[in-house]
Structure prediction request, 410 residues.
Amino acid sequence: MENHTQVSSTIYHKARMKLESVPNWEDDDVPCREEEGDNLYTELLDCLTSRSSRSIYIHGMPGCGKSLTMSAVLKKLSTNPDLGRWEYFEINAMQLAKSSDIYLTFLELLQQRNIRIKVDGNRTKPIVAQNSLRNYFARDQSKSPMILLHIEELDKLAKSVELLYDLFDWTTGGKANLIIVGISNDLSLVEKLFPKKVASRLGLKRINFVPYSGAEIEQILRSRLSDTAHIFENSALTLISKKVAASLSDVRRALHVSRKSLSLVEKLNLENNEEGNIRVNTSHVNQAHNVMYAMTEYKMLPFLSIYELLFILSVIEEIRIIGNNIVQFYNVVLRFKKLQSCHAPYHENVSVSHLRSMMIRLQNMTYIEILHRGRIPVLECDLRLEVDAEGVIHTLKDNQIITAIYGQQD
Prediction:
């Protein structure tokens, strides 16, 4: 019995490791992102072989495979012997103390690879690093190695329009030998920051990652689990995938729910000496959701007013429909009025002023975040959801409005 339990425990452990680790796709293709990966690979291959500069803007919802696809493409490029010398650098804007530190970080990374850049002035000042880099890429670098700069969390630099313009502008030089790939969660970042003529001059190549469908999320889970997928009942994987797809299609959430469900089953297996006979079913999935969404902010959801609930659902629906996790208050107002007319027609209409106050109150309750972009009219301010959409839907699964919009939740 002990040996059987030990073996079954090893199987659960193996499955959990597959869900936790970053996959190493043998064929270099990320499941359900083959088209986007091919587009990115083609763009980068063209730049590296022709030694031409370019800016590439990758955008899509969080957890839709952008960074993973980038990693797979880089792996594929690294095995190509015909590309000549090229250097790859990655900067995560989230890790910068302030936006201008990207100049200091990039300069330091280049110098660590023995790429000689003349620096006039104090090396610790961003403006000095900025001028040094600008001068370097303005000169003919055709005899230097191609440089590929990958910027994660590009939206974190959006507070400085001049900075983003400056970075992208370096690639417009004929012989800068620079490729910049920026990855952002904000679908409309470029439109918000740059007029059409400016964006056109910068020549940004865009690659859009649309949200995953439920079937695609299930395919990804099965691909990750591979030979341990049998530990999950088919209905369990389908339920996980449908729940995540019904909110914001973040595959990381599907992996998290899968791990939680697996941990519950592993514990039951050891307690009952079931010799590995317990498989993850829909009941375990729902238990995992209950554990995950037992935090205070979710517990408070049933006590929100119908207007506050409609506001949060308006944000969720706007995010889901446009495929962008940052939405404009004006569009949320329009979505709110539609939801109210359909699901709360007998309640008093709410003014924009009232909705603005509600928006601030929900921010104070940490349900949303108001993103300020300088002095702009209130209707043009941006919003971001700060709680998990799936958690909201799961917590309020018995609410009539939730049922009407998303159907009966298992």
Summary: The CA atoms of residues 5 and 275 lie 5 Å apart. The first strand starts at residue 54 and ends at 60.
